[in-house]
Design brief:
Layout lengths: L8 H10 L1 H14 L8 H12 L5 H18 L7 H14 L33 E6 L6 H14 L4 E5 L5 H14 L3 E2 L7 H14 L4 E5 L7 H18 L6 E7 L4 H13 L4 E5 L9 H9 L3 E5 L7 E3 L2 H9 L2
Parallel strand pairs: 1-4, 1-5, 2-3, 2-4, 5-6, 6-7
Antiparallel strand pairs: 7-8
Helix pairs in contact: 2-3, 3-4, 4-5, 4-11, 5-12, 6-7, 8-9, 10-11
Length: about 325
């Protein structure tokens, strides 16, 4: 097992607690959906469709799930409503598995993840070091906090981490990242306000490489009002990093605020239009009834969710496990 043990009792309790509001909302809706019914029929499926859509799973993803359950009902001839919960969980897990390219599993080694022995395999042959994560997302989604918590996780695992403050358009962003660096005990490479973000990324990677770092995490500006500028900026950052390490970045992590529901969908689409996203971190899932958005975003973008944020604590950014997530969301 990798060094981020998702299955510990404490982390399972955090997951259950974080998703409690969503689970309660979904469970109440499911109970109403099957009220007075013994078997899954068209009425139950119609009601289930409404449950999923109103739980922020999204229309397109909901229709996929309903279609899968319809096929199962047709094949098995008779499916009792008491079986519906388990079937729903199985079909959603199956849907999420289709888009897991290995990047959503810390034990994978195909896309630069940490394997069981804690080694980085950035390009599949173990020669890529440091492992470079470029973090994108609009302001206010918890991007910088997510970076700090990631740095903490890697540091706890014995990794040497460097942070790059390439969001040079907001002084607060740089200050916040520096504060996280001090809190976690990792160096932060920064320049003056208004500096070229690509220059910061270059300096970060060059310094990290020279000092034998294992992981580099680079923050970027969260502007979406001018997509052309954002696209050009991200392209420039990538191009400049490749001068230091041709394979960089190993990962482009999009951070989204799960509590915004369908707005998170739209943000995800817009970022996917301007740059290649390889993994997702969905934050602020605790205390919201919109946890279903995790399922829909992963399905629609065909990109794996890698981390979920379930609270303010350092340990509350968890490695995403689709089966544990679905069990917590739809479990009895």
């Amino acid at each position: 097992m990798g060094f981020f043990s998702f299955f510990s009792k404490e982390k399972k309790e955090t997951l259950d607690k974080g998703l409690e509001t969503t689970k309660r909302s979904v469970f109440e809706k499911l109970t109403r959906a099957v009220a007075g019914k013994d078997k899954v029929d068209d009425d139950v499926l119609d009601n289930l469709e409404e449950v999923l859509v109103t739980s922020d799973v999204g229309v397109d993803t909901t229709l996929k799930v309903i279609e899968r359950i319809e096929e199962r009902v047709a094949r098995d001839k008779y499916v009792s409503t008491s079986e519906l919960n388990n079937i729903l969980r199985e079909e959603i897990v199956g849907l999420l598995e289709e888009y897991d390219n290995g990047n959503g599993n810390v034990n994978g080694n195909e896309n630069g993840n940490v394997n069981g022995s804690g080694n980085f395999n950035g390009n599949g042959n173990g020669t890529s070091k440091p492992y470079v994560i470029l973090v994108v997302g609009v302001n206010g989604v918890g991007k910088t906090t997510t970076i700090g918590k990631l740095a903490y996780k890697f540091k706890q695992a014995g990794k040497k981490v460097y942070l790059g403050a390439a969001d040079t358009f907001r002084a607060a962003a740089v200050e916040q990242l520096v504060a996280w660096g001090e809190r976690v005990g990792v160096p932060v490479v920064k320049q003056q306000m208004g500096s070229d973000p690509a220059s910061v990324a270059y300096d970060t990677l060059a310094s990290a490489k020279a000092n034998g770092a294992d992981v580099v995490i680079i923050d970027t500006a969260g502007r979406l009002h001018n997509k052309v500028n954002l696209m050009n900026e991200l392209k420039k950052i990538k191009d400049v990093m490749k001068k230091v390490m041709p394979e960089a970045p190993d990962e482009v992590l999009l951070v989204l605020d799960g509590s915004t529901g369908q707005n998170a969908f739209e943000q995800a689409r817009q970022f996917a239009n301007v740059t290649q996203i390889t993994s997702l971190a969905i934050t602020k899932l605790d205390g919201t009834a919109k946890g279903g958005v995790v399922i829909g975003i992963s399905d629609q973008l065909k990109v794996p969710v890698k981390y979920i944020g379930l609270g303010e604590g350092m340990e509350d950014l968890q490695e995403f496990d689709r089966r544990e997530f679905v069990n917590s969301l739809f479990g009895e």
